[in-house]
Amino acid sequence: MANPVYKKITLVGTSETSFADAAASAVAKASETVHNMSWFEVAEQRGSIVDGKIHQYQVTVQIGFRVD
Amino acid sequence: MANPVYKKITLVGTSETSFADAAASAVAKASETVHNMSWFEVAEQRGSIVDGKIHQYQVTVQIGFRVD
Amino acid sequence: MANPVYKKITLVGTSETSFADAAASAVAKASETVHNMSWFEVAEQRGSIVDGKIHQYQVTVQIGFRVD
Amino acid sequence: MANPVYKKITLVGTSETSFADAAASAVAKASETVHNMSWFEVAEQRGSIVDGKIHQYQVTVQIGFRVD
Amino acid sequence: MANPVYKKITLVGTSETSFADAAASAVAKASETVHNMSWFEVAEQRGSIVDGKIHQYQVTVQIGFRVD
Amino acid sequence: MANPVYKKITLVGTSETSFADAAASAVAKASETVHNMSWFEVAEQRGSIVDGKIHQYQVTVQIGFRVD
Amino acid sequence: MANPVYKKITLVGTSETSFADAAASAVAKASETVHNMSWFEVAEQRGSIVDGKIHQYQVTVQIGFRVD
Amino acid sequence: MANPVYKKITLVGTSETSFADAAASAVAKASETVHNMSWFEVAEQRGSIVDGKIHQYQVTVQIGFRVD
Amino acid sequence: MANPVYKKITLVGTSETSFADAAASAVAKASETVHNMSWFEVAEQRGSIVDGKIHQYQVTVQIGFRVD
Amino acid sequence: MANPVYKKITLVGTSETSFADAAASAVAKASETVHNMSWFEVAEQRGSIVDGKIHQYQVTVQIGFRVD
Amino acid sequence: MANPVYKKITLVGTSETSFADAAASAVAKASETVHNMSWFEVAEQRGSIVDGKIHQYQVTVQIGFRVD
Amino acid sequence: MANPVYKKITLVGTSETSFADAAASAVAKASETVHNMSWFEVAEQRGSIVDGKIHQYQVTVQIGFRVD
Question: What pTM did the predictor assign?
Answer without folding.
Answer: 0.96
